Amino acid sequence: MLLADIVPLDTWGIIIRIGISFLLGGAIGLEREIHGRPAGLRTHILVCTGSCLVMLVSMYGFTELGMTTDPARLAAQVVSGIGFLGAGAIIRDKGGVTGITTASTIWIAGMIGLACGNGYYVGAIAATIVALLTLTVLKLVEKAVAHHVISFEIVSDTDHPLLKEIVEICDQYNLLLSNIEAHVIEYGKVHAIKLTANFPKDSDREKVKKCLSQVDEELKPYYLKIK
After folding, report:
1. What is the pLDDT of residue 28?
2. pLDDT over 90, % of the chain
């Protein structure tokens, strides 16, 4: 069902479509914001509403000028263009890659915006619900399935490159890291870096303990815990 079947595309119709894209993009962005991701509430709202506007312009903006155009052309540019924006959320380091999920949420926010602009609100709302369930419920499922993965959490000062030094120590034990996440937090009265990462499931647990023991001894972090 299209929104145009219920709400005519007058001034209020345009405002309603942009408003729905604002709400749906904000819902996904809020989840990312709560978890401290670099692309959060404002980014997802701007991507979703911007995509909605592009779709509206593509479908109706040129006809008002007496021009004919293919509405899919601008929409196709949004689909490919958001890929560059999402790439900016992905961080690749020697220890692994992080930010892919956030890049994916930016992309789907753009697609939801296009659906809103087209008046396909049922698909837009359904996609938003699926995205939120994936980010919340399925994250718990992932943790339950991957309970055997060895992970750790470390909090240290901001005076040195924490990840680089940890990777160098892990290299001494031929250990790799994955699912690396790092955030600046308030630790007591100081700014600190909180880093979490996983070791491969087939890693030798004793070797991991020795590695992290060396990390603790050399880097002297505020906090270090094996999960």
Report:
1. 93
2. 31
The pTM for the full model equals 0.61
CB 152 within 8 Å of CB 212: yes
Give the per-residue SS3 of 131-166. HHHHHHHHHHHHHHHCCCCCEEEEEECCCCCHHHHH
Give average pLDDT by consecutive 10-residue segment, the chain, 227 residues.
54 89 94 81 92 87 61 76 70 56 88 91 93 86 68 88 90 88 84 88 84 91 86
**Which pLDDT value is given to residue 154?**
92
Per-domain residue ranges of the chain: 3-144, 151-226
First vs last C-alpha separation in the chain: 48
Is the Cβ–Cβ distance between 152 and 219 less than 8 Å?
A: no
Superfamily of domain 151-226: ACT domain (3.30.70.260)
Q: What share of the chain is helix, strand, coil (3-state, %, to 5)?
A: 60, 15, 25
Q: Which phi and psi angles does 66 have, rounded to 5°?
A: 80, 15
Mean confidence (pLDDT) of the chain: 82
- The string of DSSP codes covering 73-111 is HHHHHHHHHHHHHHHTT-EEETTEEE-HHHHHHHHHHHH
